[in-house]
Amino acid sequence: METTYFAVAFLIGICALSTAIGFGLLGGKFLEACARQPEMAPTLQTKMFIIAGLLDAVPMIGVGIGMYMLFA
């Protein structure tokens, strides 16, 4: 039982860490691209928000799997 708690905590922690790293890289690359080509900023911003939405799904899936492991 204690192993399950550790596995769930580890899973959720890794999901949060990977999402934070992904958002950091995404934001940095977006700022670099806007600095190089300011006229492309609206197009890049739209694509950045689409990728951010997909990137946000990672911790949600991790929490769902963790809750399944914990309560099933």
UniProtKB/TrEMBL annotation:
This is ATP synthase subunit c. NCBIfam families: ATP_synt_c, PRK06876.1. Residues 6-69 form the V-ATPase proteolipid subunit C-like domain. It is a multi-pass membrane protein. CDD domains: ATP-synt_Fo_c_ATPE. Key component of the F(0) channel; it plays a direct role in translocation across the membrane. A homomeric c-ring of between 10-14 subunits forms the central stalk rotor element with the F(1) delta and epsilon subunits. F(1)F(0) ATP synthase produces ATP from ADP in the presence of a proton or sodium gradient. F-type ATPases consist of two structural domains, F(1) containing the extramembraneous catalytic core and F(0) containing the membrane proton channel, linked together by a central stalk and a peripheral stalk. During catalysis, ATP synthesis in the catalytic domain of F(1) is coupled via a rotary mechanism of the central stalk subunits to proton translocation. The record marks 56 as: Reversibly protonated during proton transport. Keywords: ATP synthesis, Cell membrane, CF(0), Hydrogen ion transport, Ion transport, Lipid-binding, Membrane, Transmembrane, Transmembrane helix, Transport. It is found in: Cell membrane; Membrane. InterPro entries: ATP_synth_csu_bac/chlpt, ATP_synth_F0_csu, ATP_synth_F0_csu_DDCD_BS, ATP_synth_F0_csu_sf, ATPase_proteolipid_c-like_dom, F/V-ATP_Csub_sf. Belongs to the ATPase C chain family.
